[in-house]
Amino acid sequence: MEQMSPLALGFVGSLLAGAMTAVGASPVLLGQIPSRATRDLALGFAAGVMLAASFFSLIIPALDAAESRFENGAAPAAIVCVAILLGIGAVAWMNERLPHEHFSSGREGPEAASLRRVWLFIFAITIHNVPEGLAVGVGFGADGLSGGLPLALGIGLQNAPEGLAVAVSLLGEGYDKGRAWTIAALTGLVEPIGGALGAGVVSLSQPLLPWGLAFAAGAMIYVISHEIIPETHRRGHQKKATFGLSIGLVLMLFLDVWLG
Ligand SMILES: [Zn+2]
């Protein structure tokens, strides 16, 4: 793997991480669905991994990259702050703008509202997989194997409960096992698109590196706050969700410091 180009590493690494979404959804195919409490714990874990990855694998490297260009002073921090806000703003804008109403056509009333909520959740999971892929790609593009590996591992780990959450919510709306699993798997397959893009951009352009890293962090932070944490707190399992978040956070911190 050492001889692969950063672009190829970014693509393969993010593809493998994205494939974990399908692996995580597979209990649905076997008819073995973990309890809601277990799923909230696992999704809380995903939020913790994403939170730690945002800071330790993206924001801190973004600050380092900006400092190596601009010395200390206000410029590096300002660049990273602006890029984080741009990342948050971009996903918020996409969430508002992209049409998803048509998924609920043909149904009326509260049933349609629940189907719409499920599709909004799936939409958000899919969208945030682009910056996750971007993060993995940027990691490989900036620092080769050692930069990308902890991110690919951590992002892969947190994709599993996300895939399960998507597949289970579709089952709840009456989709059959095969379709629920396939849609969940597809949400993960957008990850290599971000991966190739991220690795390509940062290996071509060093000045873009802090911007790319911090933008990807902002996009992830939006989804953690807007979708994942609220989803884990909707059914009264806040304690388990927070426990999962804590474990995910320290595990990702450990992986990043140990492998990064
Ligand atoms: Zn995620």
From TrEMBL:
Query: What protein am I looking at?
Result: ZIP family metal transporter
Similarity remark: Belongs to the ZIP transporter (TC 2.A.5) family.
Q: Any transmembrane segments, and where?
A: 41-63, 75-94, 208-229, 241-259
What are the protein's UniProt keywords? Cell membrane, Membrane, Transmembrane, Transmembrane helix, Zinc
Q: Organism source for this protein?
A: Limimaricola cinnabarinus
PANTHER family assigned to the protein according to its UniProt record, in alphabetical order: ZINC TRANSPORTER ZIP11, ZINC/IRON TRANSPORTER
Q: How does it sit in the membrane?
A: Multi-pass membrane protein
Which compartments is it annotated to reside in? Cell membrane
Q: Name one GO molecular function term.
A: zinc ion transmembrane transporter activity
